Amino acid sequence: MSEETPDDQLRTEQHDPAVPEAYAAFMRTGWDDRPSHVERHPVADLAAARRTRLAEVFPGERLVLPAGGYKVRAYDTDYRFRPDTAHTHLSGNQTSDAVLVVEPDGSSSLYARPRSGRDSDEFFRDRQYGALWAGKRPSAEELEASLGLPVRHVDQLADDLRTSAKTRVHRGVSGAVDVLVDGDAGRDAELARVLSEMRLVKEPWELEQLQQAVDATTLGFEDCVREWDGVLEHGERWLEGTFFRRARTMGNDLGYDSIVAGGSHATTLHWIENSGPIVPGELILLDMGVENAHLYTADITRTLPVSGRFTMLQRDLYTLVLQAQDAALAALRPGARFLAGHEAAMVVLAHGLDDLGLLPVSAEEALAPDSRVYARWTLHGVSHMLGMDVHDCGHAAPEAYRDAELAEGMVLTVEPGLYFQADDLLVPEELRGIGIRIEDDVVVTADGVRNLSSALPRTPDAIEEWMGRLRG
Ligand code: GLY
Ligand code: MN
Questions:
Q1: Is ligand 1 within 6 A of the CB of residue 97?
Q2: Can you give the pLDDT at residue 4?
Q3: Which of 58, 316, 364, 408 is deepest in the core (most CB within 10 A)?
Q4: What is the pTM of this model?
């Protein structure tokens, strides 16, 4: 397929040299444009089955799921493209600007932006889509062969959406697509809810992807410890860079910005500046995850003693968090409430905080739903669903997620923490600036959970042994 792109629609820059017709005409000739052989995408059949399930929820309706487009970082430099999760879950497509449309009869098409032909200047002049600037995009035929979906050019989408079918859009992903369909916020929110809820229970292939992401993340943590000399010299930035290298070599990217938090930075839950020093004697909290090639991410946190050994105080506090995590892990099984892990961890932490003499009331009183004063030092929930989004299934209804029972095949994090802010006058000075979180990724099995991230040590002894071994 080849589309003429008029000169004024090419994404060029004012500092680009002029393109005389002689040069342009010469560029359009002499290319080997034979189609490439393309393997069927490993997710093509799974995605087809998912589309069938989705269409059954909304019979007779048209469903529009954009991949999204490039996002500006600054002026004409964009972030690397990462497609919308629901779009890729239901199509396998990872190219930008595409839109999956499930038609009222249940059939589907992918409206895509394939590579242009050589009869247009796009391939050598367009900085965003041109093959010579941004890389060769797949052709429509290649996308069809790979994804098992009929492919039309995305420029046809506006016309094709003009028919009278009742239409829902996965809104907020693509402004360009959102304006094509009059909104009904309630109906579109219902689509978003169903898209999230479809991903609550992972398929066996998805569990393999998650395990692969976790295994790559384990290697990334090991890389960090192996490079501890660089860490001590260059601080948090070194660890961020070290882990990123592993994420890019073994996966697609990071699943989320790494949290590399030395010392009191660990008390900032989403510390992603990663600009501080790493100080011997302190703790460092690492919350990092590799997103694999199919966009499934891990989400793992370890809190390590910078010097390789925990102080007595650090070990005691760490052990309290570990006991809370163990309690949460033991509470999770099919039929248990999603919040059962959180509540079990909070019982342990509230009693631990009471033992430290920090609570203004008894642990039991603090644990009452109308109190929760202990949460000054625990701050967040202990679990979230994990999948292609780090906080997966976020649009699911509370009764399907937060207030629901767990089911076999769900994958969630278990991540209690204790955080004593540096300026917290209600804790002894020796506690101020200490933050500890332990986070593992588990899948709900027939009778409990299996820890996908068990290859990374969790106990203080195992962490010290592991750090000693990897640092040589
Ligand atoms: N890993 C960051 C979070 O769960 O919020
Ligand atoms: Mn998490």
A1: no
A2: 53
A3: 58
A4: 0.96
